[in-house]
C-alpha cells in the first residue's frame, strides 16, 4: 500500500513547499515601512478628528476613513462634492473625519500623517481631497514621500514646516488617537459612518439624499427620532 | 482513495490560500495580487471581512485544516474502507459551501466587488464538496477488501 501512495505524498509535499514559498515571498516583499499603525506615539489629547461645518450644527456626521481604502476614495471623490454643495452648505451638518488606517494598508499611514501635518497648517481638507483624487497613483508609488511632498506643494503648504512635521512625526499621535477611538468602538472596516453618534448600518455608505432625509428628520421641530436607517451602535 | 487524495490536494490549496489572506489581513504581506482592479481590497477593507471579531479567512484556515487532516487520515490503510471520513468531508465541505455562498452573496449584492482569492476559495470548497458527494455515491460499489 505504501508504494503506490508515495508519489501522492511527494506531490502533496511539493505543492506545500511551492505554496509556502509563495507566501514567504509575499511576506518578504512587504518591506516593513518605518511608520505603521502599530508604531507607538503619544496619543494627542483634545478633540478627535477634523471637522468641516459649523460647531453649532445640530447634526454631526462622523466618518472613519482610511486613505488607501478604495470605497473611501470613491466616497470622497464622488459623494463628498455633493455633500458639501447640498448638505454642509445648509449649516445644519458638521462633518467629522476620523483617521482610521487599516492594518492591511501599508502606504496609508504615510498619507494619514501627511494629512495631519497639513492640518497643522489649516489645510487638512485640501490634502484630504488631493490624496483621494490621486489614490491610485500614490498607492502604487515606490516613493510615497515624494508624492505626498508634491501634493503639499500643490495645495500651497509651507514645505519647511510640512517636511519637519513628516520627519518628526509628532502629528502621528493624533492619527493614532483617532484610530484608538475607532478600535474602542469595535470598527473593522472603512468607511464607517455615525450620524449624531448612531452607527449607520446601511449596506452601502449613506448617499446625500439619505443624509438630507435624516438631517431633516433630526432638525424638524418636535420630530420623531430617525428610524430604520441609522441605529445606535 | 482517489477521491480522498483529490480532497487532500484541494484542501491543501485552500489552506494555503486562506493562510495568505489571513497574513494579509494582519498586514504581514504586501498588497494582494489582484490584477490591479482593487476589488480584493474593497472586499478586504469592508466590515464583512470580519466575523465575530476574527478575519473571515481564519475560518477558512480552520475549515481547510480539518478537511486536510480528515482526508489524510482517511487515506491510512485501516481507514480506506471506512465511510466515516468521507461523510465528515461531505459535512464539513457542505458547511463550507454554504458559508462561501453567503460570502459570495455579500460580494455580489452588498459589497459590489469581487475578490478573486475569495472566488478561488469558493471554487475549491465547491469542488471538495462535489468530490465528497461523488465519493459517497461510489463507495457502496467499491470492491470489498479481503
Describe the overall structure.
The complex is a heterodimer of chains A (233) and B (146). Chain A has helices at residues 2-28, 70-86, 108-120, 124-133, 135-139, 144-154, 159-168, 172-184, 208-219; strands spanning 50-52, 59-65, 93-99, 192-195, 198-200, 230-232. Chain A is globular. Chain A is of the alpha+beta class. In chain A, 51% of the residues lie in helices and 12% in strands. Chain A has a 6-stranded mixed β-sheet with strand order 1-3-2-4-5-6. Chain B is mainly alpha-helical. Helix content of chain B is 69%, strand content 3%. Chain B has helices at 2-25, 39-45, 56-74, 84-111, 116-138, and strands at 50-51, 54-55. Chain B has a two-stranded antiparallel sheet. Chain B is elongated, with a radius of gyration of 17 Å.
Mean pLDDT of chain A: 85
Strand/helix succession of chain A = HEEHEHHHHHHEEHE
> Total strand count of chain B, please?
2
The level of helicity of chain B is: 55-70%
Number of strands of chain A: 6
Roughly how many Å apart are the termini of chain B? 16 Å
Mean of the pLDDT scores of chain B? 84
How would you characterize the largest beta sheet of chain A?
Answer: 6 strands, mixed
DSSP strand (E) fraction of chain B? under 5%
Could you give the order of strands across the largest sheet of chain A?
1-3-2-4-5-6
Chains forming the largest contact? A-B, 37 and 34 residues
Residue ranges of chain B: pLDDT <50 for 5 or more in a row? 140-146
Overall 3D form of chain B: elongated
The largest sheet of chain B has its strands arranged as 1-2
Strand content of chain A: 5-15%
- Series of H and E elements of chain B: HHEEHHH
Largest sheet of chain B: 2 strands, antiparallel
Oligomer type = heterodimer
Amino acid at each position: 500500500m505504501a508504494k503506490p501512495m508515495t508519489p501522492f505524498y511527494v506531490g502533496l509535499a511539493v505543492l506545500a513547499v511551492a505554496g509556502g514559498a509563495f507566501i514567504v515571498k509575499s511576506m518578504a516583499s512587504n518591506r516593513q515601512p518605518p511608520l505603521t499603525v502599530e508604531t507607538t506615539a503619544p496619543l494627542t489629547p483634545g478633540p478627535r478628528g477634523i471637522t468641516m461645518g459649523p460647531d453649532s450644527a445640530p447634526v454631526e456626521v462622523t466618518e472613519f476613513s482610511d486613505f488607501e481604502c478604495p470605497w473611501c476614495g470613491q466616497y470622497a471623490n464622488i459623494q463628498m462634492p455633493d455633500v458639501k454643495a447640498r448638505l454642509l452648505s445648509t449649516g445644519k451638518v458638521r462633518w467629522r473625519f476620523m483617521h482610521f488606517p487599516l492594518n492591511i494598508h501599508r502606504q496609508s499611514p504615510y498619507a494619514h500623517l501627511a494629512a495631519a501635518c497639513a492640518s497643522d497648517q489649516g489645510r487638512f481638507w485640501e490634502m484630504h481631497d488631493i490624496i483621494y483624487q490621486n489614490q491610485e497613483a500614490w498607492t502604487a508609488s515606490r516613493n510615497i514621500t515624494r508624492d505626498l511632498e508634491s501634493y503639499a506643494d500643490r495645495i500651497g503648504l509651507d514645505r519647511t514646516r510640512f517636511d519637519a512635521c513628516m520627519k518628526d512625526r509628532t502629528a502621528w499621535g493624533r492619527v493614532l488617537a483617532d484610530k484608538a477611538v475607532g478600535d474602542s468602538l469595535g470598527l473593522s472596516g472603512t468607511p464607517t459612518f455615525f450620524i449624531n453618534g448612531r452607527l449607520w448600518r446601511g449596506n452601502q455608505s449613506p448617499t446625500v439624499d439619505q443624509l438630507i432625509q435624516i438631517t431633516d428628520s433630526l432638525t424638524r421641530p418636535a420630530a420623531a427620532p430617525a428610524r430604520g436607517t441609522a441605529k445606535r451602535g | 482513495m482517489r477521491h480522498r487524495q483529490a480532497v487532500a490536494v484541494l484542501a491543501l490549496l485552500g489552506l494555503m490560500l486562506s493562510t495568505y489572506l489571513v497574513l494579509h489581513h494582519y498586514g504581514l504581506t504586501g498588497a494582494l495580487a489582484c490584477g490591479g482592479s482593487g476589488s480584493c481590497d474593497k472586499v478586504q477593507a469592508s466590515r464583512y471581512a470580519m466575523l465575530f471579531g476574527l478575519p473571515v479567512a481564519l475560518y477558512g484556515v480552520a475549515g481547510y485544516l480539518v478537511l486536510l487532516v480528515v482526508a489524510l487520515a482517511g487515506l491510512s490503510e485501516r481507514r480506506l474502507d471506512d465511510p466515516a471520513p468521507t461523510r465528515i468531508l461531505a459535512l464539513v465541505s457542505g458547511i463550507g459551501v454554504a458559508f462561501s455562498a453567503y460570502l459570495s452573496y455579500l460580494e455580489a449584492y452588498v459589497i459590489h466587488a469581487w475578490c478573486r482569492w475569495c472566488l478561488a476559495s469558493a471554487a475549491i470548497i465547491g469542488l471538495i464538496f462535489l468530490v465528497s458527494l461523488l465519493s459517497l455515491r461510489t463507495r457502496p460499489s467499491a470492491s470489498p477488501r479481503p
